[in-house]
């Protein structure tokens, strides 16, 4: 089967606004320069011909933007701007909207050429508040064209995530496992975000699989594709037709059941009943769907699937879902020359059975799941139903660990932490790597444990914390956590225990 499109394309319109007591030509000239700067930065934007000076212009600009297929918009204050009409545009647009404004260009033109947009941004923001509009305002919202083009480039990433959530359907199969209560999260906050949820049983999943003819041409093509992807790591060629049949079943189900939405993700029950019913573990298939842009979270972790999807949109590449799993032994730490700014106590291993895409691995091969094998099969015999994991060392480089979670109280909370996956052999099984995130040890205690986050975290293979933070904030989440340096205390942290130098020295 061909790779599917499972992410929104942002089509951005920039509309200029002008207060009627300022020259409209000032906004028109500055808008033209901003569009040129965006084009120079290789951003595909449409500059609206209509300049908003009044409510009629706002309606006309809406029609123009929609006629050009815009699903995100930048409202640009070329001068002070009319706060009422410009917020009417934002209110009726229906997609993500950013506000920004023009800085003054030269001391030689501060009489007829002064726009006062620095002042106008204050009123625009206030009026957005009056209308309860969640508009995006960048860190530095007033600037010259090149600086604003950089802010618009960032907004496109944020808008992509917001549009992705707006058009998302989450398919779940099976109840959350009893031994993983952390995955048993409330559904209502997902609806608050705008995500559509469709829950199904494990029997539904089995019937979908059985409905696919083993001799189907798509199954044969997918099995061939798997063999080519695995190369020398194809240790179980006899297993590929079963895995391919399962992949085809999931993709067809998603395409048939999207309904009113455009994008799909899964959160599936993957053990312990799965193996005895299907005859394999689904991990490699999960990895492949993630590589196609359709994350499949293990253990029916709905918020894990959503977090993985957001990481994918923020980084524009496949992501994965890992356990914050185990500490790194001292004798392994001693082999690492560069901890990338982290202390030894900040290191940990991120692990999962084998769901990480092959493109996110340094090395990988098809294996069996050791933990499940202990539980389900005779360890003296060759593994059978526990085969199907993609195992190896994670690709070293920049990373972002992220989670958006509906907590036990039904409130949305989140964390974002940037660091690196180190290029060191983890000496263990599964899809696994050593993570170095500066200031992680205290973050682990006072945020992950202190705020009761579950063991799963989504992993982007890039630094994309800025985009994730802004997108989550735009989604209405106010409790967003990041690792703090030793100079700053977490709420409730004992100040007398805050001696990181002594702690680091003792490791």
Give a description of the structure:
This protein has 17 helices and 18 strands. It has 507 residues and is α/β, with parallel strands linked by helices. It has a 6-stranded antiparallel beta barrel. Strands 2-1-3-4-5 form a 5-stranded parallel β-sheet, sandwiched between helices. Strand 15 (412-422) and strand 16 form a beta hairpin. Helix 5 crosses helix 16 and helix 7 (202-211) packs across helix 9 (240-257). 49% of the residues are buried.
- In DSSP terms (H or I, runs of 4 or more residues), the helix count works out at 17
**Total separate domains:** 2
Distance between the termini: 51 Å
Poorly predicted parts: 502-507
Brief sketch in words of this structure:
Helices cover 38% and strands 20% of the residues. The chain has 507 residues and is α/β, with parallel strands linked by helices.
Features:
18 strands, disordered C terminus, Rossmann fold, single chain, 507 residues, 2 domains, five-stranded parallel sheet, 17 helices, six-stranded antiparallel beta barrel, 20% strand, alpha/beta, L-fucose Isomerase, Chain A, domain 2
Helix-strand blueprint:
Blueprint: E1 12-17, H1 24-40, E2 45-47, H2 55-67, E3 72-77, H3 83-93, E4 97-102, H4 117-130, E5 142-143, H5 145-166, E6 168-173, H6 188-193, E7 196-200, H7 202-211, H8 217-230, H9 240-257, E8 263-268, H10 273-278, H11 283-291, E9 296-297, H12 302-315, E10 320-326, H13 330-333, E11 347-352, E12 365-368, H14 370-376, E13 387-393, E14 397-406, E15 412-422, E16 431-436, H15 440-449, E17 456-460, H16 465-474, E18 479-481, H17 500-506
Parallel strand pairs: 1-2, 1-3, 3-4, 4-5, 6-7, 6-8, 8-9, 13-16, 15-18
Antiparallel strand pairs: 10-11, 10-17, 11-16, 12-13, 14-15, 14-17, 15-16
Helix pairs in contact: 1-5, 2-3, 3-4, 5-12, 5-16, 7-9, 8-9, 9-11
């Amino acid at each position: 089967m061909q790779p599917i499109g499972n992410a929104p394309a942002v089509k951005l319109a920039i509309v200029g606004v002008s207060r009627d007591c300022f020259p409209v030509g000032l906004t028109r000239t500055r808008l033209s320069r901003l569009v040129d700067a965006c084009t120079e930065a290789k951003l595909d934007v449409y500059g609206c011909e209509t300049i908003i000076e009044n409510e009629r212009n706002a309606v006309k600009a809406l029609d123009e933007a929609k006629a050009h297929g815009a699903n995100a918009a930048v409202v640009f204050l070329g001068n002070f701007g009319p706060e009422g009409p410009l917020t009417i545009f934002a209110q009726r647009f229906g997609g993500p909207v950013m506000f920004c404004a023009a800085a003054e260009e030269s001391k030689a033109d501060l009489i007829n050429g002064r726009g006062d947009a620095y002042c106008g941004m204050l009123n625009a923001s206030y009026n957005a508040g009056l209308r309860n509009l969640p508009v995006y305002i960048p860190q530095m919202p007033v600037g010259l064209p090149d600086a604003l083009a950089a802010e618009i480039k960032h907004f496109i990433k944020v808008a992509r995530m917001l549009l992705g959530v707006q058009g998302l359907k989450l398919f779940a199969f099976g109840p959350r496992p009893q031994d993983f209560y952390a995955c048993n999260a409330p559904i209502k906050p997902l609806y608050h975000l705008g995500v559509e949820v469709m829950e199904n049983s494990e029997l539904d999943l089995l019937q979908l699989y059985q409905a696919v003819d083993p001799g189907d041409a798509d199954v044969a093509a997918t099995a061939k594709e798997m063999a080519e992807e695995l190369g020398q790591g194809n240790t179980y060629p006899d297993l590929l037709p079963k895995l391919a049949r399962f992949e085809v079943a999931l993709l067809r189900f998603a395409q048939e059941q999207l309904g009113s939405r455009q994008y799909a993700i899964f959160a599936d029950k993957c053990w312990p009943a799965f193996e005895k019913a299907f005859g394999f573990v689904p991990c490699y298939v999960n990895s492949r769907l993630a590589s196609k842009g359709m994350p499949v979270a293990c253990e029916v972790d709905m918020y894990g699937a959503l977090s993985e999807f957001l990481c994918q949109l923020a980084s524009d590449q496949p992501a994965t879902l890992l356990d914050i799993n185990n500490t790194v032994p001292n004798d392994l730490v001693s082999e690492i020359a560069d901890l990338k700014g982290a202390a030894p106590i900040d290191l940990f291993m991120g692990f999962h059975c084998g769901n990480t895409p092959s493109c996110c691995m340094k090395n990988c091969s098809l294996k069996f799941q050791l933990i499940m094998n202990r539980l389900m099969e005779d360890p003296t015999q060759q593994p059978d139903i526990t085969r199907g994991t993609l195992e190896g060392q994670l690709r070293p480089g920049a990373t972002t660990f992220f989670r958006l979670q509906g907590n036990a109280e039904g409130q949305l909370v989140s964390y974002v932490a940037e660091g690196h996956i180190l290029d060191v052999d983890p000496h263990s099984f599964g899809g696994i790597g050593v993570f170095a995130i500066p200031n992680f040890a205290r973050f682990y205690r006072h945020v992950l444990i202190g705020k009761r986050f579950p063991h799963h975290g989504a992993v982007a293979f890039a630094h994309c914390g800025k985009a994730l933070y802004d997108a989550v904030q735009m989604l209405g989440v106010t409790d967003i956590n990041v690792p703090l340096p030793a100079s700053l205390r977490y709420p409730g942290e004992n100040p007398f225990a805050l001696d990181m130098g002594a702690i680091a020295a003792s490791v």
